[in-house]
Structures are given as structure tokens and as C-alpha cells.
Amino acid sequence: MQISVTISGLSRLFGDDLAGIVEVARVADEVGIHQLVMTDHLAIGPRTDRYPFAAKFPYPPEEPWLEPLSVLAAFAAATTRVRLGTGVLIGPLRPALVVAKTVATLDVLSRGRVDLGLGTGWQREEFTDPGLPFVGRTARMEDAVRACRAVWEHAPPVSFASDTVSFSDLWCEPRPVQPRIPIWFSGAANAATVRRVAELGDGWLPLAIPIDDVASTVEELRAAFREHGRDPATLQVRQNLAVRTDEGGGVDVAATVAPIPDLAARGVTMVSVALGRFLRTREDIGPFLRDLGDAFS
């Protein structure tokens, strides 16, 4: 089991010094956190009531959302070992070659530490480009992944054709350091997610899904991996972990990690905590990360 930390809730912890998150990366790298994850919104509209994963969207519209791949590039310069992920990058908001070039550049700068989490997005107002509309975003995301795989993994010049993206005889250099960029898809516990992960991805990011449904979907994913000639042991599943607090409001690390043996038995390979939702001050970040790293060492 590995531990991932998602950095969110920036305004409460960092105020007007958002660049301070780079120091979080340095500490996480030092104490043994396996993966750092940045979230993604290009903009937020007023209809946060459409948020599908909880009763209420956890942040106000004015919450700052740093562009994740830019932040991960800064993390790459400040770290040497921690993996750098998105959770999730809203893929359909970006042209396929922009994703391919940016992710490959990040993988080169980090010397092969990128984990690309992808999702389709839920907020219609965010899709302002008429060439990248809200409707049809799932098909565009899948075509974009196929196009990225082509330019990352095939010898140039590369050609690719699909309903939403096509090109001929292109060089898109540099290619990633990793022979295969790990791609983790968010998605419901259903057949579409199983097909997408088994065909195009390497991992699943269940969000607000009961653990029994996660476990049954993991079994379906393993079977689908076998059907595609892939080793089911390579499937990655990152599950959110609820942070427990003690009577004084501090983090109870022992209670927080107690569910891990059960999660591992159900096929979860990595657990994730969201940094910005429970710590009281910025000064609490370092001690918490050190305690968390010790728990997974």
C-alpha cells in the first residue's frame, strides 16, 4: 500500500502565498510520501450545486485553483523521488497535442515521475471553447488518450485518426522518459469505466463510491485486464482515506490508517488524503506529512 497526498483548499492554508505549496512538495519528498496530486479547474461558475460527488461542493467559487501541470513542474524542480499526479486533470478542456506535449515535458523534467489522472469534468460553465464543448467530452477524452499514446509510444513520424482528433506524420518531441505514462481514470463503478481503464489506462480513481462497489468493480477490472492480455496485478486503484481527528482536533494518524488492511484486501493499491480539508494551520502540514510518512515506511 502506498500513500498519496492531494493538495487542495489552498486559500485556507496558504492565503496570499500560494507559492508556499512548493515547500510542501519538498517535505513530502523528504519524508517518504509516494505521490503528490494536484486538482484541476480552469474556472468555477456559480452552479456548484451540480457537483455530483457530495451534497455540497467543498469550496466557494472564489477558491484559487492553480493549473496542475504547471505546479507539478515546480514540484519536479524541488523534489527527486515523489511521484507527481493529477487528480484529476479535466482532459476534454485541453487539445490532445497540448496534453501530449505538456505531460511529456513534465515527465522529462521529473525524470519519469508522472502519474496522469484524467476525468471528464462536471461543470458545464467551464467548457467555454466552442471547439471543446461539454457535450461529447467523454469521447474526446478517450480519443485524446489514444492520440497521446501514439505520439508518446510510437516511433515518429506519427499519424493518428479518430472522430475528434487526427494528424499525419508528426514529430512531437521530446517523448516521455517512462515507456508508458500511467493513466488513471476517474469514473463510476460501471461497465464504461471498466472498459476504459482496461483498454486505455493503468488505474482507477473511485470517488464517493461505497467500498463494496469498489471491491466488486476491481474484480471486474482484473477480469477485463486478462481479456485484453494484460496482467491484472498491474492494476492500480487509489481510494480516498478519511482523516480521523482526536478529541483536541488534531490528526489521529493511527486511526486514519487503521482501515488500510481491509482496503488492501479489496484491491486498493494506494490511499489518498486531501491536505487542505482538516489541518488547522500551515504550520501543521510538515508534522502531519512526517507522521504520515512514518506510518507508511
The whole-angstrom Rg is 19 Å
User: How many runs of DSSP E, i.e. beta strands?
Assistant: 11
Instruction: Describe the strand arrangement of the main beta sheet, using strand numbers.
Output: 1-2-3-5-8-9-10-11
What is the overall number of helices? 10
Strand portion, in percent?
15-25%
Query: How many domains comprise the coordinates?
Result: 1
Helix content: 25-40%
Distance between the termini: 10 Å
* CATH third-tier fold name: TIM Barrel
CATH superfamily: Luciferase-like domain
Spans with pLDDT under 50 lasting ≥5 residues? none
Task: Spell the H/E element sequence.
Answer: EHHEHEEHEHEEEHEHEHHEH
- Sheet bearing the most strands, described? 8 strands, parallel, barrel
Give the overall silhouette: globular
Structural category is alpha/beta
The CATH class, by name, is Alpha Beta
Structural overview:
The protein has 297 residues and is an alpha/beta fold. It has a single domain, classed as Luciferase-like domain (TIM Barrel, Alpha-Beta Barrel), CATH 3.20.20. 36% of the residues lie in helices and 16% in strands. The chain contains ten helices and eleven strands. Helix 3 links the parallel strand 2 and strand 3. It is globular, with a radius of gyration of 19 Å. The termini are close together.
